[in-house]
Amino acid sequence: MPTRSRLIQSSRVAKRRRKARLRQILFLLCMAVPAFAIIVGLTHLNVVHITSVTVSGNVTTNSSDITAIANEDISGNYFAFFSRSNAFLYPKQKISTDILNTFKTLSTVSVGEVNLHTIQISVTERQPFAMWCGATPPAGTSDASSSSLTTTSSCYFFDQTGFLYSAAPDLVVTPFLKYYGPLSSDANANPIGQTYLSSTTLAGISNFIEVLAEGSTTAVSFSMPTATEYEIDTASSTKIYLDPQHSFTDDLSNLSTVLNNPTLQISSVDILQYLDLRLDDKVFYKLK
User: Can you give the residue ranges of every domain in the chain?
Assistant: First the structure.
């Protein structure tokens, strides 16, 4: 068994070791605090402090509104210590995300450094592809019967991706086609920020309508009366029915067959009351 003297000696050794560890900890703290203070100070140096924000690529969006968001994001500190306006630490991704979330009219936002004091925000604004004017055409009205295209405050511009980004102005005449149909989210929610149709579908519709225009037929609206039916109304009051499951290439082929068949003697879609292209191997139509 250990003697009393050995126990006392072991206790003294343990105390010395604890004191040595404590001194080491205190030493490290004494070194860490100044080092931390130096690092914090470096993030606040004027030589790496962002003082200017420039904006390019915007036409309808105010530069001051964009810079206000950037300045808000670079104000203050991370964890109450590290400067958010430091040229190496500023929240680049947050600035980009906040601007996109605020301005639905922008499709892309790029943030980069011009130098240690200036950041450049480059934006791309969405271009109107057409107008979405509701889930269904207004009751008792027909876009097809009007010779000029009109818009109301209930219409919204969307781009080629189908993204609704802005209310359409209250114009008397506009070159944009009216589209009707359900959106990607709740019909009662704000349409801005929602998606109408996919870019592939919109490209197919646009191509079909361009072919109609080459034959002097002007489309004025596109709608989806049911989940299995597309409808195009023309300025001459002709209705064209398409199947969403069919390719637009096949629809154009069937349209060409009708117009180029000498037996049918159909020189233009405008002389038809309707043209039904929903069946694979048959085309139905009715003369006015």
Answer: 46-125, 130-287
Tokens at residue 148, please? 């000029």
pLDDT tens-digit profile of 132-166?
Answer: 999 888 775 555 444 444 545 589 999 999 999 99
Q: How far apart are CA 155 and CA 132, in angstroms?
A: 6
* Residues 83, 86, 88: CA angle, nearest 5 degrees: 125
What's the average model confidence in pLDDT over 276-283? 88
- For residues 200 and 212, the answer to whether their CB atoms sit within 8 Å is no
Protein fold of 130-287: Rossmann fold (3.40.50)
**pTM reported for the whole predicted model:** 0.80
Q: Look up the CATH number of domain 46-125.
A: 3.10.20
Distance CA 185, CA 187 (A): 6
What CA–CA distance (Å, rounded) separates 36 from 34?
Answer: 5
Band (pLDDT 50/70/90 cuts) for residue 7 is low
The helix (run of H) or strand (run of E) holding residue 230 is: strand 229-234
179 touches 132 (CB < 8 A): yes
